[in-house]
Design goal:
With about 325 residues, the protein is mostly helical. It has one domain. It contains eleven helices and two strands. The protein has a two-stranded antiparallel ribbon.
């Protein structure tokens, strides 16, 4: 995972230098990553379809040799070789997808931290400028580096800045100082120094007249709670309409419906729990973390749906072609 993070960061930054729009860069990068692994997905899908077809034969073997596990294993291996399938044929693309997913999460978090520090320090030293000129927006989202939600501010708040490591503060402030955006770089020694900086500099400025309006709640809608457990606030200058989290759930559920619709009952039962977990993860990550990662997740799901439908049509056409060729051969 750690080795993928800098690679993805470098690739995305290189594409961003050309495209000059982070949202479009993320969309293009996502599609390119999916195209790279498409041959593996194609092979995996064919393997999964073959495994589904041999399920009745596997069940017969399991019933016939239920008292002889050694014989059962032998017969199953013979069946796999005969049909040209592997029970693990669909695993590799899934493993790669999970690695890329988590690597993208860390990459987008790194980008978000860098951008939020840039936005705060720039506005802190230049409080007369329009803060909206500091953010990277996309359609309804004002700031890609904050969550797509009416429960999130579009300018970085104390909580989001508190989570950023001291090294990021030092590195970004050094770049801003070198560019002449701020007068001098920070020199935070450790996490304790960050906490002190947050309490003595960040928090007072965010509460100041210059910054407070951008993180102010709607009157009467601050610190709301659900059953006294979940607390949230609706902000005047909120960052989004919760569109990406909603799309992540809908696309995830639709993809799961397509996948489970082609599985045997036993297979579907084994994967149902995992699919529910992925749906919950989809909502959680896309609602809590930055919009850039949520955008990656949604585009990935939409691409997967399109790819699934395309593969399905391709394999059906191949099967019809093979059946017709076999029929012609028999007639001859």
């Amino acid at each position: 995972m750690n080795f993928l993070n800098p690679i993805l960061l470098s690739l995305i930054k290189g594409m961003q230098a050309i495209i000059n729009n982070y949202a479009i860069t993320i969309i293009v990068f996502t599609i390119l990553i999916k195209l790279v692994v498409m041959p593996l997905n194609l092979k995996s899908r064919r393997s999964t379809m073959k495994m589904t077809k041999v399920q009745p034969q596997l069940q017969e073997l399991q019933e016939k040799y239920k008292n002889d596990q050694e014989k059962l294993s032998q017969k199953m291996q013979e069946l796999y070789r005969k049909e040209g399938v592997s029970p693990f044929g669909g695993c590799l693309p899934m493993i790669i997808s999970m690695f890329v997913l988590f690597a993208m999460f860390y990459a987008m978090r790194t980008f978000a931290n860098e951008q939020l520090v840039t936005q705060f320090l720039t506005f802190y030293h230049n409080p007369t400028i329009d803060p909206s000129t500091l953010t990277d927006g996309f359609l309804w989202i004002k700031n890609l580096w904050m969550p797509d939600s009416p429960f999130a501010t579009y300018m970085p708040d104390v909580q989001s800045l508190r989570m950023i490591e001291f090294g990021v503060w030092n590195d970004i402030s050094a770049k801003l100082a070198a560019a002449g955006t701020i007068p001098q770089a920070l020199n935070l020694a450790d996490a304790a120094a960050v906490n002190e900086f947050i309490e003595t500099v960040v928090t007072p400025f965010i509460a100041s007249e210059a910054y407070a309006p951008y993180v102010a709640p709607v009157a009467g809608l601050g610190n709301l709670s659900v059953l006294g457990i979940i607390r949230f606030t609706i902000y005047k200058h909120f960052n989004g309409w919760f569109v990406l989290p909603a799309l992540s759930i809908l696309s995830q559920l639709f993809m799961q419906k397509l996948t489970m619709g082609q599985m045997e009952a036993a297979q579907a039962g084994n994967t149902k729990t995992m699919m529910y977990v992925m749906t919950f993860m989809s909502l959680y990550f896309c609602a809590i973390y930055n919009s850039a990662f949520a955008l990656y997740w949604v585009i990935s799901n939409i691409y997967a749906i399109v790819e699934h439908v395309a593969f399905d049509k391709y394999f059906k056409a191949q099967d019809r072609k093979a059946a017709k060729a076999e029929e012609v051969g028999v007639l001859k």
